[in-house]
Design a protein that fits this description.
By secondary structure, the protein is of the alpha/beta class. It has three domains: about 55 residues, no CATH class; about 140 residues, Rossmann fold (3-Layer(aba) Sandwich), CATH 3.40.50; about 170 residues, 3-Layer(aba) Sandwich (Rossmann fold), CATH 3.40.50.720. Helix content is about 45%, strand content about 15%. It is built from 18 helices and twelve strands. β6, α10 and β7 form a beta-alpha-beta unit.
Length: about 450
Amino acid sequence: MNKYIKRVIEDVRAKNADQSEFLQAVEEVLTTLAPVLDRNPQYEENAILERLVLPERTIIFRVPWVDDAGKVRVNRGYRIQFNSAIGPYKGGLRFDPSVNLSVLKFLAFEQVFKNSLTTLPMGGGKGGSDFNPKQSPHTPGKRCSDAEVMRFCQSFMTALYHYIGPDTDVPAGDMNVGGREIGYLFGQYKRLANEWTGVLTGKGLSFGGSLIRPEATGYGDVYFAENMLAKRGEALDGKRCVVSGSGNVASFAAEKLIQLGATVLTLSDRSGAIYAKDGISADMLKDIMYLKNVQRGEFADFAKKTKGVTFFKGANSWQLADKVDCAFPCARQNELNGKDAAYLVKHGCTLVGEGANMPSTPEAVETFLKAKVMFSPGKASNAGGVATSGLEMSQNSERVSWTRDEVDAKLKGIMKAIHDNAWDAAAKYGKKGNYVVGANIAGFTKVADAMVAQGIV
C-alpha cells in the first residue's frame, strides 16, 4: 500500500475506532487511489487525504416533539457537511433507528465522490435522525400518524434551517424521508426563513419538484447497467435479474428493467423476500408499489394473494433463484455478503449494479471482481437520484419546469457520462474494466484539484 495512504488510514482508524461503516467507506476509496497519488505529488503536499476524510462541519442537535398521546419525545438530529469544494453540500436526510454518526459520515463521504461524478457542481453532505416513522412511540405495531410525522419534521427543520440554504446546503430525501416528509420540512423552512427557495429537493410537483425525481435513482442504476452491458455487446432484454429492497430505488429499478425486457425475479423488505418464478409483471409491480407506498403493508400478505409468488421470511433476494444474470442491490448498506456473492457467481451472475449506498460488503466486492463480474459501485450507479436533484435545483433557480422526457434524457446523458468517466479513469491508470477504481479516481481527482486550487481552507 502507498505509504501516504497507509498513514492516513491508520490515523482515521485511531480517531474513529467505533465507526465501522465510516472506516469501511474510507478504506474502500483510499486503497484504490495509489496510482493517481503516485503521479500527482501535489495531493500529498497539500494534505488532500487528511482534509478529505474530515467533515468540514458536523452538526448534532436535539429534536423535541409531542406525540398524539401528548407525551414529549426527544430524538437526535444530524447534518454532516463533508466537502464543499465543487459546490454547495448536497445529500439526503434519513429517518431510521439505525442512524448514527458512523452511518451518516460514511454516507456523506460517499456523497462527495458520487456528486463529483455527476458532472454537476455539488459538494457532499448527509443528515437525518434516529426517529422511526414506521413505529408509533405509544402504540406497538402501529406507524406514526401523519400529524406526528409533521410535528417531528417541523421540530427537526427548526433546528436545521440555520445551517442550510440554496447556495449553502440543499438536503433531499433518503430512507423513510419521502414526499410527505419533504413537504413538511419545506413548509417549515419557508415559514422560518420567510422565503421560497429550492432549499430541498424531492419536493412535490405542485411546489417546485421535478418530474422523474422519485424514479431517478432506480432508473439511473439501470441506465448505468445498460452502458456496462454495451461494452460487451449485450442488452438487458431477456436477462434474469434479482433486485433487493421495495422502496423507490428498488421499485423503479424493477420498473425500468421490465420496460427494457428483463425478467425481475425478486424484491425484499425488512420481513423477507418474494420470489416470482416467472418474473414480476408490470401489473404485479403496480400492486407492490401500492402496498408499500399507500397501504404500508408487508410482502407476506402480497404473496398470499398473488399466484406464482412465494414469500421467504427473513430471507434476502440473493439466494432464491437458480439462474441469475444480473443483480441490483437496492436496499441498504452491507446487505450482500461474501456468501451471497459466491452464490450469485455460481448461478451465472455476470453484472452487479449497486442501487443502494455500499450495499456489498468488502468480501462480496472481492468475490465479484475476482470472478470478472461487471460491478458498479453505488457512488457511480446510484448517482441518478442526486443528479436529478441537481436538475431540480436548476429548475428552481430558473423558475421553470422541464418535461418528463427532458429530465429523463438529461438523466440518461448524465449516467452515460458517469459510466464513461469511470471507464476512462480505470483504463488510464491500468485498471481497465474496474469500475470501483475508475469511479473512485474520477470522483477524487475533480474534488482534489478543486481543493488544491482553493488553497489551505
